[in-house]
Design brief:
Layout (H helix, E strand, L loop, with lengths): L2 H27 L4 H14 L3 E3 L6 E3 L2 H11 L1 H17 L8 H25 L8 H35 L3 H8 L4 H16 L5 H8 L1 H45 L4 H18 L4 H13 L9 H4 L7 H7 L1 H11 L7 H6 L21 H15 L11 H11 L6 H13 L21 H6 L11 H9 L6 H12 L7 E8 L4 E7 L2 H6 L3 E2 L3 H9 L3 E4 L9 H5 L3 E9 L2 E10 L7 H16 L14
Helix pairs in contact: 1-4, 1-5, 1-6, 2-3, 2-4, 3-4, 3-5, 3-8, 4-5, 5-6, 6-7, 6-8, 11-12, 11-17, 12-17, 17-18, 21-22
Length: 625
């Protein structure tokens, strides 16, 4: 609480203590009729348990205001002040323990006591003797006097509370009052109207009694309309917030996709399959369903904080690198925890790498302790990751991927969820929602020589074979990439429409491509290393996919491409199994001179380089699945 808020609150408490003490003295000196006041005090205590709470604020009002108003009007200001103080005490008992401080309780008692006592005293000053004896005119007079009482009571109470809140939150008092207190007028005027009925019904004619009761439907309508408007505001607010959540989810998911070389189709497929699997598993709670739907897009948001050389490393992670990679689950949960999602999204993100047997991370949860959404997401995400190309490995077939799930059943994954997923896959006959699944599968290893030799040009002729026979005989005996590059250029410069050629060797420690052979002297002198994933050659090295007729300016520095007049490039990766060895990049001064046939020739040359690089490396195909 701020200093000025504390001063104001204690000032109200002191004034309230004076009013209540004075009122108790008056009641002891001239006791009110016991039955009436006792009934009013009892009703105040019981109805004080029913409160009206202001959403988002630590403010509450009680429907028992009606009986403190009746006590003030029917018994006197002193009885009204004591009854209002009792109402504030009961209201404070309904507060959370963490909010129930001594100043707050005393303030809740003092504020309504002051307002009720002051309003009742003003009413007595304005009141005329026996107004109901004057027929309809008397009823109008009484209604006006009671309206003054209600308006004053409402204003004193709400503006005092609004002032305390404004001082504490450093907000404008008018804004606080309009936003949180203005709509509460119905409580006070409803109490005033009830008091008027009790004062008048036994003393007026049926016609005048009807006139007194007539405003009741209007008050009920206004109260209902106000409640309806508040509900509509809440619905609109929820709709806007839902759009914000969706926009935040989409933005975060796209940010992850941009850094982690995974297409946006991956998370969309995982989302669709996760929803389908959740329904099949028997998840019916819509909050959990929405959480799974969002988690499918955001479960890897923590990878934003993982260095790119680890995230997109084309091969097995070292122990230290894997420890860094494991941080993405907790990091993602921490990132998302600052957003007040209306469904349990954060636990799914945090625990989507926990294992059924307790060997996962970050918390080592096991079995049913792992959120159901995380267990569902694990299975779907693994299957989709295995059946799509990644920078560190090629995809495998559906049958092999399903076998991986079976092998991990009961250790990494929930057995029941795996079984249901397998049944769903069987029902769909192995159909995938991935467009890439309809493409012809690329070989798991680098292209082999026969494929290139079978390639035909636009004229239907095969490329010269002698060059490949010579390369296949000479290259295996060479000891370095620069020597291999020199022989490749000597044999392929007349086969491919290229004016320059660079062999980039892969430096595993630096996660970069280093020029090992450059056909042009200027490129040898000025060309620098390329980080894996950057430029066209870096991208080819990271993904293992060829690029045809790309722009050389993506990677050649200092205007080399302009000085050499280079306009197009063909780049292919040379790989041993899933281990990157080199990238072969051919540059041309012509616009789009390279064809699919030229790409196959280059891939065949890359296969020769891979064959000369040594035995294949065994790589973990799922280290970032």
């Amino acid at each position: 609480m701020t200093r000025w808020a504390r001063v104001f609150v204690w000032g109200v408490i002191v004034v309230g203590a004076i009013v209540v003490t004075h009122s108790i003295g008056e009641l002891l000196a001239a006791p009110p009729p016991p039955p009436l006041w006792a009934i009013l005090m009892t009703l105040t205590a019981f109805t004080g348990l029913a409160t009206l709470r202001i959403p988002g604020m630590q403010i509450s009002f009680s429907i028992s205001d009606t009986f403190s108003i009746l006590a003030a009007l029917l018994v006197g200001p002193a009885a009204g002040a004591v009854t209002a103080a009792l109402d504030g005490l009961v209201l404070s008992c309904r507060m959370l323990t963490s909010r129930r401080t001594v100043p707050r309780v005393l303030f809740n008692m003092a504020c309504p006591a002051i307002a009720t006592w002051t309003s009742a005293e003003v009413f007595l000053v304005l009141a005329t003797p026996d107004p109901l004896a004057h027929g309809f005119a008397g009823i109008v007079t009484l209604a006006g006097q009671l309206a003054v009482f209600g308006a004053l009571d409402f204003a004193l109470t709400t503006w005092t509370v609004a002032a305390a809140v404004a001082l504490d939150s450093r907000s404008r008092i008018v804004m606080v009052w309009r936003q949180h207190c203005m709509g509460l007028w119905i409580t006070y005027f409803g109490g005033v109207f009830a008091a008027m009925l009790m004062m008048a019904l036994d003393r007026v004619s049926p016609t005048n009694g009807l006139l007194l009761i007539a405003p009741l439907p209007v008050l009920l309508y206004v109260a209902f309309r106000h409640a309806q408007a508040r509900a509509q505001d809440q619905i609109q607010h929820l709709g806007k917030m839902n759009k914000v959540y969706v926009a935040a989810i989409e933005a975060l998911a796209q940010a992850v996709d941009t850094k982690d070389q995974v297409t946006h189709d991956h998370v969309r497929r995982v989302q669709t399959q996760s929803m389908r699997l959740a329904r099949a598993v028997g998840v019916t709670d819509e909050h959990v369903i929405e959480a799974i739907k969002a988690a499918a897009l955001l479960h890897d948001v923590g990878k934003i904080g993982i260095p790119e050389h680890i995230l997109n490393k084309p091969g097995r992670l070292t122990s230290s690198e894997f420890e860094i990679m494991k941080q993405h689950a907790a990091m993602g949960a921490e990132i998302l925890s600052v957003i007040d999602f209306p469904y349990p999204l954060v636990p799914i993100v945090r625990h989507h790498h926990e294992n059924w047997d307790g060997t996962g991370y970050p918390d080592g949860l096991a079995g049913e302790a792992i959120p159901i959404g995380a267990r569902i997401l694990q299975v779907v995400d693994c299957f989709d990751a295995l059946t799509t190309d990644r920078p560190y490995r090629r995809r495998i077939g559906d049958t092999e991927a399903l076998q991986v799930l079976v092998d991990r059943r009961g250790t990494m994954y929930d057995p029941r969820i795996v079984d249901i997923f397998l049944s769903l896959q069987a029902e769909s006959d192995g159909a995938r929602e991935c467009p890439a699944a309809e493409e012809p599968a690329r070989p798991a290893r680098g292209p082999v020589l026969p494929r290139a030799l079978e390639a035909r040009g636009d004229d239907g002729a095969a490329p010269p074979l002698q060059a490949f026979y010579e390369l296949g005989r000479i290259v295996p005996g060479l000891g370095s990439l620069d020597a291999i590059g020199e022989k490749l250029w000597a044999h392929l410069r007349d086969v491919l429409p290229a004016d320059a050629f660079v062999v980039y060797g892969y430096d595993g420690e630096a996660h970069a491509l280093v020029p090992r052979f450059c056909s042009a002297a200027e490129m040898r002198d000025r060309h620098a290393r390329i980080a894996l994933g950057e430029g066209l050659s870096g991208w080819v090295g990271a993904t293992g996919r060829a690029m045809i007729n790309a722009d050389p300016r993506l990677e050649l520095p200092d205007g080399i491409s302009a000085r050499l007049g280079l306009h197009s490039a063909l780049a292919v990766a040379s790989m041993v199994g899933d281990r990157l060895v080199a990238v072969l990049t051919f540059y041309s001064s012509r616009d789009e001179p390279f064809s699919e046939t030229h790409c196959r020739v280059a891939e065949a040359a890359a296969a020769i380089v891979a064959g000369a690089a040594g035995p294949a490396a065994v790589v973990d195909a799922t280290h970032a699945a």
